[in-house]
Amino acid sequence: MAREKPSQLQKDVFKATAKIPRGKISTYALVAEAIGKPRAARAVGNALNKSSGMPSCPCHRVVKSDGSVGGFTGGTRRKIFLLRKEGLEITSGNVSGFENHLYKFR
DNA sequence: CATATGACACTAT
DNA sequence: AATAGTGCCATAT
Question: Smallest CA–C1' separation from A66: which nucleotide?
């Protein structure tokens, strides 16, 4: 099997997501800003989609801007479960007080 | 090179 | 507050 080479976007996105400390979360828009593309929230999601298989992928720590867990290829349930394990509270596919756990890439 | 798809965001209604 | 429409970026075909 030919393994695909990680795109530049995936590298940048992975770096940003890897900075998110355990117990905290971030949004696709914030990650996009962190990599220097504040309008590339979509591309960020696309990059994370390919990062399935990456080591230490805190991709579940990335949620939408309005506090929704967003999507997750393979099962949003999984993402919610992981986030709950991190000490967060998810209700109706929505992160409770997500703004309180948001990591702003200082 | 153009079209279609996708783990989004913002504004208007 | 919720839904719909439009915009933006990157990858795949």
Answer: B9
Give per-residue pLDDT as tens, A16-25. 999 999 999 9
Summarised one tens digit per residue, pLDDT across range A42-62 is: 999 999 999 877 777 899 999
Closest CA to A62 of A77, A41, A92: A41
Closest to A26 measured CA to CA, from A93, A91, A75, A88: A88
Q: How far is the CA of A2 from the C1' of C5 (A)?
A: 40
| A38-50 core/surface letters (b: 16 or more CB in 10 A; e: else) | eebbebbbbbbeb
Any strand C atom closer than 7 Å to A9 CB = yes
State whether the beta carbon of A46 lies below 7 angstroms from any atom of strand C: yes
**Whole-prediction pTM:** 0.94
- Which residue from A48, A40, A24 is spatially nearest to A105, judged by alpha carbons? A24
